[in-house]
Amino acid sequence: MSNELLWLVLMVANFTSILIFYRYFGKTGLFIWTALATIIANIQVLKTVELFGFVATLGNIVYGTTFLVTDILSENYGKKEARKAVLVGFLSLITMTIMMQIALLFKPDASDFSQDALVTIFSFMPRIVIASLAAYWLSQLHDIWAFHLWKKRLPQTKYLWIRNNLSTMISQFIDSFVFCFIAFWGVYELNIFWSILWTTYFFKWIVAAADTPFLYVAKFLYDKGKINELVKNEA
Questions:
Q1: Contact (Cβ atoms closer than 8 angstroms) between residue 39 and residue 93
Q2: Is residue 7 included in any domain, yes or no?
Q3: Which UniProt keywords apply (predicted)?
C-alpha cells in the first residue's frame, strides 16, 4: 500500500475515532483524545516520509485532530471547555516527557532489547516537546479565539464550515512555523528543513479542510441528544 493511500486511511481513522470517543464518552472523550493525540503526534513526528513527492513528517494528521476537538468543544460547550482541552494536551506532553526521561536513566538488564530504540526516540523528545508545547499553546489559543470571533459574526450553523476553516488554517500556520523552527532548525539541511515546514503546513491544511464534515456530524449528534456524557452538566 502506498504512503499516500495509507495517509488517507490514517486520516479517516483519526476522524472516525474522534466521533466514537465523543459519541460514547461525551466531552470527557474529547479530553481523553486530546491527551492521546498530543502524545502520539510527538512520537510520530520523528519519522519522515515521502508523500505526494514531498518530504513530510508523520504526526500531522493526529496532531491536526486536536484542532477539530477544540472546535467541537467551542461550538457545543463554549470557550472555557475548549481551553480545558488545550490544558489537558499541554500537561500530557509534559508528563510523558518527564516519565520517559526518568525511564531512560534506568540501567537496562542484559536481556533488554529496547533501550537503544527508546534512547533514539525519547532522548530527542525534550526538544520536540518544547517545540510542541510552544506551538501547541500559541496555535490552539488562537484557534479558540478566532473560532469564537467568527461565531459572533456568523453564528448560524450553516456557517460552521467558515468558522472551522478560517480559525484552524491560520492556527495551523502558526503551529507549523513555531514548531519547525524550534524542533528542526539546525537538525536538517536547509532544503529539507524548508520542505518539512511547508509540507507540514500543507498537509495540516488538508486535514483542516477534511475535518469539516466530521465537525458537522459532531454538531448533529449533539443537537439530537445522541452524545453520552459521562459527566452531566449541573443545572
A1: yes
A2: yes
A3: Cell inner membrane, Cell membrane, Membrane, Transmembrane, Transmembrane helix, Transport
Query: Cell numbers 477534511 label which residue?
Result: 210
- Tens place of pLDDT per residue across the chain (235 aa): 799 999 999 999 999 999 999 999 999 999 999 999 999 988 888 888 888 887 777 888 898 899 999 999 999 999 999 999 999 999 998 898 899 989 999 999 999 999 998 888 887 667 777 888 898 889 999 999 999 998 888 888 788 999 898 898 889 889 888 988 888 888 778 888 887 788 878 888 888 889 999 999 999 999 999 999 987 654 3
CATH code of the domain in which 62 resides: 1.10.1760
Structural domains counted in the chain: 1
Identify the burial level of 144 via C-beta atoms within 10 angstroms of its C-beta, where 0-12 means exposed, 13-18 middle and 19 or more buried: buried
CA-based end-to-end distance of the chain = 51
Which residue type is seen at 117?
A: A
Determine, yes or no, domain membership for 39. Answer: yes
* Contact yes or no for 17/32 (Cβ under 8 A): no
Range of the domain at 71: 3-104+116-223
